[in-house]
Amino acid sequence: MMSTSGVVKSVPTVIHARITGTGSYLPGAPVSNDDLRTRGIDTSDEWIVERTGIRTRHLADEGVTSSDLALEACRRALEAAGRLPDEIDLIVYATSTPDFIFPSSAAILQHKLGIKNGGAAFDVQAVCSGFAYGLTVAEKFIRSGSHRRALVVGAEVFSRILDWNDRGTCVLFGDGAGAVVLEASDEPGILASTIHADGSYSDILSVPGQVSHGKVIGSPFLQMDGKTVFKFAVKVLSEAAIEVLDAAGLNTGDVDWLIPHQANIRILQATAKKLEISEDKVIVSVDRHGNTSAASVPLALDLAVRTGKIKRGDTLLLEGVGGGFTWGAVLLKF
Ligand code: COA
User: Fold this and answer.
1) How many whole angstroms separate alpha carbon 18 and alpha carbon 37?
2) Residue of the nearest CA to atom 46 in ligand 1?
3) What are the DSSP calls for 205-219, one per residue?
4) What ligand 1 atom has the least distance to the C-alpha of 291?
5) pLDDT digits over 98-110, tens only?
6) Which residue has the CA at smallest separation from atom 10 of ligand 1?
7) Any catalytic annotation for residue 291?
């Protein structure tokens, strides 16, 4: 702006972070509830559908890693955004089932995508809230001006950490990946975000094992107090939603689509009810893929975008909740 004295004053411009493409990937053929029975699990389609809404899940073949699934989801997201891999200068990769202890799955994914520009790549560990965490972190990088184009990924091979003799947990989870391209933009994208943790609840959902001196110490399998998780999830998902809506000066009536973590249809329904959001505004894909942890929200988002449900300009409320305990919400203009 030119002042009367001829001095040029710089006007700070706001950098927004906007999703420009989505992608997802589910490995192999769907595995039905009846298929689990034939694999020797003492369960029934009726029990699983009634308590969780899950009808099928996908299980990666042995040797297939989280970053293999992430690669497919990212290729689709890049194609949707019209971007080449080397245009990405930041990868934020949410997972609790990384390929290795290190290097990070993000660095492995960067190499698999053929990115050679030396951009940043790191993992985020927030279990089923991982995508909300990843999106929140990536948004801050973009808004700061330090990075222009991010891939935010959630990818899991949860089948590897399930105790297939524990019917109370093994029927609930599946493998998959989802990704978005998040770019610096003049137009508003992410309107508000919030992330939280309360480590005092760490034992209600955990894989309490570690590798030490060449051995697994503790348990390498997921364990859960299902009833406590259920109540906690509904409470914090509602609170986080109100928090981001308040921050953006909006209310639940302004939300076109609620996309909660796809853990269980009853958690989704109870959250929508508490927020007084009609169930037909809730994106549900848990029936198709079960709980895929950090992958669940970007998977649900991409499936709804590709079926034409979610359209450009819609106001979306994305939410995650999971082990830690962690939770978060991201409100955005798509
Ligand atoms: N098939 C058939 N029966 C099963 C079963 C299965 N897969 N799993 C458990 N049961 C049985 C139990 O053995 C128990 O039988 P009993 O009464 O004879 O002892 C009965 O079903 C009830 O078990 P319970 O654990 O009390 O069920 P619940 O009503 O709490 O439902 C969950 C269990 C896991 C579905 C429910 O607690 C839940 O959805 N929690 C949230 C889980 C979640 O979403 N976690 C991830 C969040 S990120």
Assistant:
1) 43
2) 263
3) EE--EEEETTEEEE-
4) 46
5) 999 999 999 999 9
6) 168
7) yes
